[in-house]
Write a structure and sequence with these properties.
It contains eight helices and no strands.
Length: 180
């Protein structure tokens, strides 16, 4: 691959994966600046691998793995005696694999709408629905009351129902008479 084609391919991958990698890291690493540094370092390392001619079959998976390792390294520098895998565990490996392999526009569209609307609501949705946390654990991690988390979820769902149209392509909230 020529340098220009590597750059174009990198930009394409960056555009498709940046939001999900960044959002993963801001839920795992605090402060936000540290998460941003880790994202930059991951993409820099990824770009170097591409320039070296490395064949990357699943770029999103590789970037997520790099992000997880760098987050672990970040916390390891503060807590060398603790098992860092407990802090950066992926709670539902099957859901993560499905998400990595799913290029569905609907999921991205919903998450983008939530992120653009309310950053706190995005974190709640990510922790509760993506990571599988209970409402109580989500509230604890975000230092909120459980009732605040519930009301944020219900308000955002109401808002999403208004924003998304029901059609064959966007039937997120439609209920049929039969439940499969």
């Amino acid at each position: 691959m020529s340098g220009d084609s590597v750059k174009e391919r990198f930009e394409e991958i960056y555009d498709k994966t940046y939001d999900s990698i960044y959002r993963y890291l801001i839920t795992k690493v605090s402060p936000r600046e540290a998460a941003e540094d880790i994202v930059q370092n991951c993409y820099l390392e990824f770009y170097k691998k591409m320039l070296e001619g490395g064949q990357i079959l699943r770029p999103k998976h590789l970037l997520l793995t790099m992000a997880k390792r760098r987050a672990a390294d970040y916390y390891r520098s503060f807590t060398p005696t603790e098992d860092i895998d407990d802090q950066t565990a992926i709670y539902d490996e099957k859901a993560l694999r499905e998400l990595e392999n799913d290029d569905s526009f609907e999921y991205e569209q919903i998450m983008r709408l939530i992120a653009e609307s309310d950053d706190t609501a995005y974190r709640i949705f990510y922790l509760h629905f993506h990571c599988g946390h209970t409402l109580e654990k989500t509230a604890r991690e975000l230092a909120m009351s459980e009732s605040t988390v519930k009301s944020k979820i219900y308000r955002m769902l109401r808002k999403l129902r208004k924003q998304l149209t029901e059609g064959e392509d966007n039937a997120f909230f439609r209920r049929s008479k039969q439940i499969p």
